Structure formats: structure tokens, C-alpha cells
């Protein structure tokens, strides 16, 4: 998101320039990191772009040449002429003059020229508006050979034009050292691309597995970050569209605009902004609109305006997204702190560039590679942030699932006794009845319960009901279902019940448990229960039919002596017998 900070920061090094003429030639010497020419290059502005080499060498322009002490920066539409005087101490020098950027629109190299004005080689032209084949030695940057056959003083000229602000302070290399440095740089770039490609593949796989849009947004962010870096480093021009100057030039603003839009989509999804905060959502919509506008400007050829818009969106967007992330963290969204950490890394990279530009550090490696390092470090932190987000969402889902299960269980549970209620009996009872085997439903209705409620109050009645529920559960098997229908009616659904004699014993055990005295404070309470029994498949196979049959049998039991158990299949009439005769 903050990449354009890295591109714009070097301008800080131009707050002061010195107009001190210098005619001292640069003595060529082999250095491991090249001979950096800061402060050794004469600069001439050509606002119209009409001057030729012969004209800039005329005495009339001698006073117009300046020697800035800071890094040189090209920006359109002005054409800049660079003049470098070099001294070759020994014969047979093979040097390379390298410009530090790949984004110069048009560059022409003249030289070397002898003191007499003789050109030892023809002009060489390259830049964004030319095919990649125009780049000498197949280098990503503008590199020109400087062959000096004899000792002496020579002059080199560069005509540079750039539509977007870029560095243009050159470096002179021994050809052998430049080749070694280029190999190291390619290895480093390959590592960076490999990291981003790995992140892209991982995010696509996670999106396909989890169907979470945040992974897709992060994948787009990594992909467009890689394409932007390839454009900045010249590898897109070298490998993707070497014969298309249009793509070579416009990719510098097109892919960054897409990258910024992907950053916004990732931030919106990661920080859980969707539909919750109207102001934040408005910001994201405006952000994406500006990215689309920058993309359109780039496609239409207004690369300068597109670049400036990209820079403005990146700067303002970084500040706003940091504020939104901080607000989300304050509201308890823990993963936002990872987003904040990732957002700070590009600013740290900017600090290293500033340190180099102001002379606090001489590590030019950071000047050229802070962008890549900042992006990859940020991507890795964001990957860790996604891991934290997955844990956070998983914890939230687990808690939500537990609450849902608790609410679902509560909806199926009688709050007084802890047994299943009528709804619980309906859901779990029908599932139990679908199991293979024979099942029995026993319906209990308490006798002598109403006098307890009327004389001792509802507290005593509730105590009795809780105790009855406890006893039924205690004397039932784990696979059986015990429920309270309401009032003083209870149901025991016996799964895969035994044969009739054993079933009689089970029902007797339950009845005896209910008949036992109940201690309530200093008092001993006594209730009994009348019961009706229904069996599958004789009395039905569905819960409703079994309840109806057991209910009829239970009322037959209550019509005679209380404390009896009647089977639904007992004969009707005054001589109706009991399944178990209980005195």
C-alpha cells in the first residue's frame, strides 16, 4: 500500500543543490559496488527538448550546466542532459554506465568523446517507449558500454526524459563487477518473486477450501504486487511483453492501481468492515473509485496523472486504513494489531531510504531494494494476520456454536426438572422410535400431587416434581428417554425394550421409585403414580399414536384404584385387567 512512499521519498534529497561548477574528471577505478557519480555529474535542463548534442556542447550553454550535490531526479516533460568527464589511467578500459531505474521514458547515450570532440561510438537509445531489445546487454536498467582504448580524458553525455519522477544519478562499473552484481540482484529478485508466488498459490488454495473472500483478496494483492515489482524492476518488459512499448510504459501505473484496489479489498474484508460502518464503507468505495480512475488514466496514456493519483491514493489510503485498523483493534478485534504491524513495515523501509539519501548510511542496497523487502515483509505479516484471523473466527464460531447448542438444548429441556420437554420428546422420541427393535412408552400421572401443591404451596410442588424427575432418570437406562410433558405428567420411552416379563419388572422398578417417600424439610411427602403403557408396533409406530394409546391406558388406571399400571392392549370394560396389579 505504501510503495509510492518509497518512490517519492528520494525527492527529499533534492531540497538543497549546489551550483558549484566542477571540471575535475572522475578518475576511473574498479570498486566492488561500482563508482557512484553523485555530485560528479553536470546537469542541463532542456524544457523544450529541442537541443542536440552539438548545441549543448556550445559555449553559449556553458554557464547553464550545474553540478547538484544530491541525487539527480528526472521528471517530465523537461529533457535533462547529463555530462560526465572521466579520466582513464590505463589502456584497455571496459566500463559500463548504468542508470539506477528502469522507468525512464527515453534515454540516449553519446560517447565517449575525446577532448577533440571525436565520437568513439555511435549513439545508443533505449527507454520505456522502445522495445526491450533496445536495452544493451539485455539489462533491465539502462546500461551503456564505455570502451576507452587509451589512457586520457573523455566526456560522456546522456539525454534523459521521464514522464514520472525517477532517479537518474548514474554509476560507472567495471564490466566484470557489473555482471556479478547483476547476478546477485537477479537472485534476490527471484527470491522475492518466489515468495509472492507462493503466497498467491497458498491464498488461492485457501480460498477454494474455505470460500472466504479475504484469501482471494490477499491472493490478488500478492499477484498485483508481484506484477508491479516486475514492472518496476524491468522484468515485465523483459519476459512478459518485450516487443510492446505500450505495455512496457503503461504497466508502471496500471498494475500499481490494481494493486492498490486489491489492498483496499483485502483491508475491508480482513478488518470486518462489510456493512457495519457506513463511513468506512464510503471510504473504501471512494478508494476503489480512485484506483479505477488511475487505471483508466493509465490506459488512456495519461501516465503522469495516473502516477500522481496512485501516489495520492497510496499516501492517504495508508493513513486512513491505519486509523480504521486501530479503531477495530480498540473495539476488540484482535487480528487488527497484525494489520497495523504490517502497515508499518513500508514506513520502516522508507526510513532506510531517507537514511541513505541524507548520507546517514551508505548502504545503497537498501536504496534499490527497500521496496521489495517492504512488500514481502508486509505480505508475510499479513499472512500471519490471516492465521490470527482464522483463529479468531474459529473461536467466535466455536462460541457461537456452543451458544446455539446451549439454546437448542434449552429449547428441548424442561427448566424445572432438567428432563426433556414436550418439544424434546417430539424430536428425540421420533428419532429413537426409528431405531430397530421393539419400544415401549410409559406415561405416568402423579396421584395425590394436587393436595401437596394446594396445602404446602408451589415451592413444595416444584420440589416433588424435581425429585420425581431425578428418580425416573436414575432408574432408567442411558439409551432411554425421560421427559416431562407438563404439570404432573411424565414419559419414559424405553428403547429396544425387553420381553413382556422383563418389561413388567422395569415398569415396576420405576413405579416403586415414584412411590417412595420424599423428604421436604422436616416433612415426609408421599405421592404415587398411575401409568399407561403402549408398545410398538401393536399400539403404533409413531410417537403420537403411542402417546394416545398410553394416555387412554393411564386414564383407565386412574379410573380404578390409583397407583396402577394399565397396558394399552388390556381388554376394555369394568373387568379390565392390569399389566401389573399394584395395591
Structure description:
The structure is a single chain. With 583 residues, this protein is α+β, with helices and mostly antiparallel strands. It folds into 3 domains: 17-69 and 72-168, Immunoglobulin-like (Sandwich); 187-403, Rhopdopsin 7-helix transmembrane proteins; 422-567, Alpha-Beta Plaits, CATH 3.30.70. The protein contains 15 helices and 19 strands.
Number of helices: 15
Q: What class, by secondary structure content?
A: alpha+beta
> Helicity, in percent?
40-55%
Unreliable sequence segments: 1-21, 571-583
Number of domains: 3
Return the CATH architecture of the largest domain: Up-down Bundle
Mean pLDDT: 84
Q: How many whole angstroms does the radius of gyration measure? A: 43 Å
Shape: rod-shaped
Determine the strand fraction and express it as a percent band. Answer: 15-25%
**Highest CATH level, the class of the largest domain:** Mainly Alpha
Pfam families: 7TMR-DISM_7TM (PF07695), 7TMR-DISMED2 (PF07696), GGDEF (PF00990)
InterPro entries: 7TMR_DISM_rcpt_extracell_dom1 (IPR011623), 7TMR_DISM_rcpt_extracell_dom2 (IPR011622), DGC-Regulatory_Protein (IPR052163), GGDEF_dom (IPR000160), Nucleotide_cyclase (IPR029787), Rev_trsase/Diguanyl_cyclase (IPR043128)
Transmembrane segments: 190-209, 214-232, 252-271, 283-302, 308-326, 338-361, 373-394
Keywords: Membrane, Transmembrane, Transmembrane helix
Summary of the model, kept short:
The protein is an alpha+beta fold. The protein contains 15 helices and 19 strands.
Q: Keywords, please?
A:
disordered C terminus; 583 residues; Alpha-Beta Plaits; 7TMR_DISM_rcpt_extracell_dom2; Rhopdopsin 7-helix transmembrane proteins; Immunoglobulin-like; single chain; alpha+beta; transmembrane helix; 15 helices; membrane; 5-stranded mixed beta sheet
